[in-house]
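Key idea: predict the complex, not the pieces.
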Amino acid sequence: MASYILRRLLALIPLILAVTLFASILMYISPGDILTKMRSSPDIPSETVEQLERAYHLVDADGEPTPWYVRYGAWLGNLVQGKLGESITYQIPVLQLIGQRLPATLILSFTSIAFAWLIAIPIGVLAAIYKDSIWDRLSALLAYAALSIPEFFLAILAVYFAAVTGWFPVGGRTAIGSEFYSAPVQLADLAYHLILPTIVLGIGSVASMMRIMRANFIDYMQQEFATTARAKGLSEKVVMFKHVLRNAINPLITALGFAFSSLLSGALLVESVMNYPGLGQLMFQALLEEDEYVVMAALMISVLMLVLGNLLADLLLAASDPRVRLSESGSRSKQLSPLKIALFASVIVAAFGIEIAIESLFPDAIPAILGFLKWIAIVLVAIVAIICLAMMAYIVVQLFKRLGKALLKRPMGLTAAIVLLCLYFGAAFANFLAPYSMSKQNLSQSFHPPTKVFFGDGGLRVQAYEIVDRSINRYEPIEGESYPLEFFVKSGDSEKLWGFIPMSHRFFGVESENPNARVYLLGSDSLGRDVFSRLLYGSQISLSIGLIGISITLTLGFAIGGLSGYFGGGVDFVGMRLVEFLLSFPTLYLLLALRSALFQPGLSPTQVYVALIVILSIIGWAGTARIIRGMTLSISGRQYVMAAESMGQPAWKILYKHILPNLASYLLVAATLSIPGYILGEAALSFLGLGITEPSASWGLMLKQSQNDMKVLFLNFWWLLTPGVAIFLTVISFNVLGDVLRDIVDPRMKTQ
Amino acid sequence: MVGCDSTPPPVERGQYPLPKDVLITEAPAGEYGGLFIQTETTQPTTFNYLVPNNLTTSIILSRMFDGLISYDPIKAEIVSALAKDWEIADDEKTYTFYLREGIKWSDGEDLTADDVLFTFDTILSDKEDPETGRVNPLYPSRYYSKFKFEDGKLEVKKIDDYTVQFYTPSVYAPFLFDLMNINILPEHKLGEAHSKELFFKSWTTQTGINEPSEIVGTGAFVMEVFRPGERLILKPNPHYWKADQDGKRLPYIDRLIFKFVTAANTEIVSFATGQTSISGIGPTDVAWVRRNEALYDFTIHEREPSTSISMIWLNQNPGKDEDGNPYVEPYKLDWFQNKLFRQALFYAFDREAVIEATFFGQAVPIDSMISQAQKGWHNPDVRKFRYNPDKSRELLKEAGFTWNESGQALGPEGNPVEFTILMPAGSSAWEDLIVTFKENLNSLGITLNINPIDFATLIRKMDYTFDYEAGVIGWGSASAAYDPSGSKAMYLSEGVYHLWHPKQKEPATEWEARIDELFREQEQILDIDKRREIMNEVQAILAEQVPFMLLVAPKGYVGIKNRWRNYEIPPAGITTWNLEEFWTPDPQADNQQLDR
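Result:
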C-alpha cells in the first residue's frame, strides 16, 4: 500500500517537469511579456523598461532575448533549492500569493463536488427505481438542459437573478461587513455566498453523474447477486440500498479524481462572472500578463491536485470495493523494463539537448530549420486532413448502414437529428437564406426589436417602426405603415455561395427606396446589423468547428489509442504518457497558452479559425485515445484478431479491418457526444475575447457582445440572447442524438 | 443574513489634539459616522506606490497618503497639503516648501523634512549597472525620469525641520504638477528597507493582509482590513491634519470600503441595486439605472466626456528593417504621408452615426488631442472633421486619387487603395467604431482590412518592429490629466509614443519641427496662461495635420446616494476628491449594506 502510494507520487515528478517545461516554452513563444503594460504606458521612459528587462532576466547582457532553456533552467534551479520564485506584479513570493487565493478555490471545489454527489445520487437512484415514470423523464430532460447551457452563460443569468430578486448576494465570497461578525455568523455568511457559485459550478456534473448513476443502478438491479439476494428473501429496500447502491457508486468514485482537478480550471469563467476571488482569476490574470513564476506555480498545484485526486479516488475505490486491487497496469499490457523507460527519457532529453545546442551554437540555422519544420508540418496536416475526411466518411456510412433504421423508430433521436439537419442546412446556405450580409449596418436602427411580419394586401408585409426614445433605444410600430416582404429579391452585394457560386438573389427581403425599411426577424444589434443574418453566418463557424474538430480528435485518438492498445509495451508507454501529460494540463489554461503562442500577428480570420480548431482538437484527443486504447486492448485479445495475426496480416490491416469496425459504433457515439464540447469551447474562448473576432461572426462572439453591458438584460433587448439559445439548441440536440445512438449501439446503457 | 448584528466597532475620535498648523476646510461642518462603499474592477498589487502598479492601487493609496501640494479640481488650481505654503525664487528654479508643523504619521510619529528628503532619495537613488556601465535608478518607477532633467537631477535640500528646498537645474514649468503626484513616505518605517535596497519588497499585499497597521501614512484613512479579491476596508486616520470649521478632525466617514468586482457589469448592477454609495455609469446604462433612483435614493450626475483619448493612426515611418525592407510599402507610405489623404479618411469616418447607434447619443466626437474635460488646456477652435463623404472625395481627387469603373479607389500611382489596421483583440469599445470605419471607407472604394491582434503584439510593432500600416489605441496617461507635459513622449518627434513616426533623429516635417519647438518653449515658461496659449497652437497644428484620427469620448455619469453631503463633482478626474469632507445625516442607513 505504502509503496503503491509512493510510486504514484514519484510519477508526479516527470509530469510536473513536462507540464512546466511546456508552459515555459509556450510563454516564451507567445508575444509580449510582463512588461507589455509598461511599454504601452506613455509616461514610463523606455530606459526604465530596458532596465527592468534586464532585472527580470528577459534579456541577457547584450540585450538579446534570453533563450527559453536559460529561463526554464533558472526556474528549475530555484525549484531544486525549494524556491518557486516571486511574482513580478505583486513583488511577493508566489506561494504567498497563491496562498491568498487557494482556500477560496478549494472550498468552492469541495462544495460543488459535494453538491453534485448529494443531488445526483438520490435523483439518479430515484430515476432508476421509477424507471420510465414521469419523474424519470423529467430528470432526463433537466439533465440534458443542464449539460447544454454554457457555464458562463448560466453564471450571468445567476448574477442577474440575484440582482433582481435580492435573494442572493451578487457575487463575492463574504459580506462586506463579515469582518465585524461573530464567528458563527461569519460561517453562515460564507455558506450563504457559496450557494449560487456552487450550484452554477456543480450543475453540469449533477447532470452527467445522475445519468451514470441511473444507468449503473438499473444495470446492477438485474445482476445475479441482486436476484440471489431477492431470492433469499431480502426486502427490496435492503437489496437496493445495501447491495446495488454500493456497486453502482463505483464509477462515480473514479470520476471524483477528475472532477477535483477540472474544477480548478473550470472555475475560472464562473469565478470571473460571479466575482468569486479564487485561484482561477489570479492565474488567468497571470497568464495574460505573463507573470511567469505565478503561472508555473499554479500549474504545479493543479497537476498536484489531479494526481492526488486520482490517487484518492483509487484508494477510495479500493476501500469501497474489495475486488479492486491497487495496481498500475491492466492485466493485458506488457510490463516495461526500467531500461526502456530510461532509454525513452534519454531520447527526450537528447532531443532537447540538440535543440539547445543548435540554438546557442548556430542561431542562424534556426530560421532554416523552422522553415523546414513548417513544410513538414504542412505536409503532415494535409495527410491528417485527408485521413480525417476518410474517417468521417467511413463513420457516416456506418451510421446509415447500421443505425439509420433504428434511429427512425425513436422520436426523440429523430427530432434531434432533424433539428441538426435544419441548422446545418442554414449554415450551408447562409449566403442565400440570410436577408442581409454579415456586416451590413444601419446605424440609425441599432437595437431594433424584431419586426412584425403579417399577412395583408395579398402578401406578407413587414411592419415599419420609428424610434421614440433615443436614450433607451425604444421603438414603436408606425400605425398603418408597412413594406411588402418579397421572396427571391435581388441582393446588392456580390457574395459567393461556398466561395465560388455567385449569388445574385437572396431568399427574402424588403425592397424599398427607404434605407430604413429592413426586415429584422430577430432584431438588430448595436450597429443595426440583422441578428438573424448574423446567426446564420455565425453558424458556419460555430457548427463546423465541432465537426472538423471531432474528426481530427477521433482520428488522432484512434491512431494513438489503437496503436497503444494493440502493440502495448513501449508504444503504449509513450502514447499514454503523452495522454496523461495533456490531461493533466488544466484545459482552459492550455487553451489560453496555446492560443497566445499560435496567434501570430497578421492572421486572417480564416487562419484564426483554423488555429482555434487545432487548439481545441489538440486538447480533445487525449481523453478519446485513452478510452480507445482500453477497447482495443480487449478486442485485440479476441480470437479473430489472433487468427488474423497468425495468418501474417500486417498490423495496419488488422487495425483497419478488424479493430476499426468494432470501434465504429463507439466512435460515432463519442463523436456526437463530444461535438458540444467544441461548440461550448468556441463560445467560452470568444467570451473571453480570445476567439473569433470582428468582423467575422460566431455564436460565441455574438453572445459575448450582448454581454458587454447589462443593458441587454435591463433594457430587455432579449433578441440579442438568441445566440445563446442557438448554442443551447444545438448542444442539446447533439446530446440527445448521442444518447439515442448509444442506446441503439449498447442497449445495456439505455437511459431513456 | 438579515437580522444579524453587524455593526462595526465604533471609531474612537478626538483622542489626539489637532496639529498646530491644522488645515480648516471650507465646506460646511457635518456629523461623524457612516459607511462609504465603492467598487473597483481591478486589484491592488502593492501598497508601495513607487512599485509600478495599477489605477485601483493608486486610488486606494491616494486615501492613505498625501503629497506636499494637492489639486482642487473645482477651483482648478494647486492647493496646499502637507506643505502649508511655498514660494518660487526669481531664478524660477528654486522652490521652497514650508511643512505644516505638528503633523503626525498615523502611528503617532512626527512628520518632518527628513521624511520628504527620504521620499525623494528613494525616487532619485541610482546605481551603476556593473555589466553595461549605465546609471540606472535603484527603484525603476515612472517618477525617476520626471525629476531627471537635461542638465542634471532635481536637488532636494533640508533648510530646517519644517522647510525643504527643491532646485531644478533648468526652468521646468510642469514641476509643481509632477510634485503633486509624489506621496511623502515615512522614513521611520521604510528607511531600513531602503538602506538594504529592499525598498520594493516593503508594503506588499501580504503586509496589507497580515499587518495593515504597518502601512503608515498621513492621509485621511488608514487600512483596517485587506482581503484580496474581496474588499479593502479603511478607517479614519486618528492623526489626520484637516479639521472642519467646528474644529472636528476629519474625515467624518467611519469606514471607507472598496469592494472588488471582476466586471464593470457587476459594478453597475451593485450600484443600481443600492449596494454601493457611488459608481461611474456608462452612457448607455444611464437610462435603466435611473429607473431605480427613487427606490434606492440616489441621483445620477452628468459629467464632461471622458478624458481618455483613443485614435487611429497611419504608419508614416519611412525607415527600413535590418534586411533593408521598408516598414511600409513605399507607395502606401506616400499616401500615408499625404496630409490630404489623412484628412480625406477622417472626413469619411461617420463617428456621429456610431454615437447615435451604440452610445445612444451620449458621446462626442473628439477634435483635439487634449480632451475638452481638461478645462483651460483644451482648444475648442481647432479644425473639426465631421462626416462628409463629398469633401472626402474632393480631397482625394486633389491628392491625385482616381476611381476605376467598378468604383475602386486608385492611388496616384495606380494601385488600388487598400490597407490593414491592427486592432487589439477583445477591445469591444473600439470594435463598433473600426467596423463602421471599414464600411465607411468601403463606400468610398477604399478597402480596410481589420486585423485583430494581441495587445502585446501591437505594442511590439508600434515600439520596436514598425512593420504595420495602421493601428488603433487608447490613450490615458495619469500624469497628463493636469498638465499635457505628461504626454511629452507623444508630442516630441524624438518621443517613443510619437506613434506615426517615433524616435526621429531630426523632425521629418516642418510641422513636427514646429510642434517640437513650441512644446519645448512652453516647458520653460512658468506663466500658465502663456503655456496654454502655446499648447493651443500645438493642438491646432495636430488637428490640421491629422496624424491621428481621433475616435469618440463617451459622456461620463456618476451616481451617488442622496444621503451624502458636501460632495462636489468635478468635470473630470476622481469624483470623491474631497472624500474626507463627505458626511451623512443618516449614518445608520448603510449598515444593512454590510450584509451583501
